[in-house]
Amino acid sequence: xxxxxxxxxxxxxxxxxxxxxxxxxxxxxxxxxxxxxxxxxxxxxxxxxxxxxxxxxxxxxxxxxxxxxxxxxxxxxxxxxxxxxxxxxxxxxxxxxxxxxxxxxxxxxxxxxxxxxxxxxxxxxxxxxxxxxxxxxxxxxxxxxxxxxxxxxxxxxxxxxxxxxxxxxxxxxxxxxxxxxxxxxxxxxxxxxxxxxxxxxxxxxxxxxxxxxxxxxxxxxxxxxxxxxxxxxxxxxxxxxxxxxxxxxx
Length: 250
What we know:
alpha/beta; Rossmann fold; two-stranded antiparallel ribbon
């Protein structure tokens, strides 16, 4: 059912190697030349710390749930995230996505897997949030798929990047508000029922901002017969999450 590793188009590998030669990698934490993330710098990356919302992982002051999840919970069983989307973590995500620093996926995936080991529940299958085929061809790889395979190896779980597909190209979410984000990705995904029927699915992505993309993926997976849908991301856009809580009545 699942493939044996992440799909990376040939030009994705070639451009990654070329950029490494042209602009030698520098650690996103200490800036030392030679690697995108030094092993000794991994523990220095910031982490989200308790108390966190049990549903969406934004920081909370009191109680198990943030105000947003009390009023209008995300349409997933829960979201787990490792770090706030700022500083060296933001830089790492940018390099992974846009500087073709594909080697970052392994140490970052290890961090994500550790988060799930500490705060996760049993699941059957890992599914990366997919790119539209046109964007995948342009980039040469899907960063969520690279992270998903790293997580799968660490947790000894199967990864299926064909279980969920993006059937409609969408605008970049970055500049959109909450409702615009939800409208933008509504109906943009379709699940393969023969691959997810009755299964507990773990979605993997690089960043959760408002959760709109993860919700749209979860809707598609549930329509395909998935029993549960959880999400796991490297980073959580904490500022955006707090603003979302305020709009929900905090």
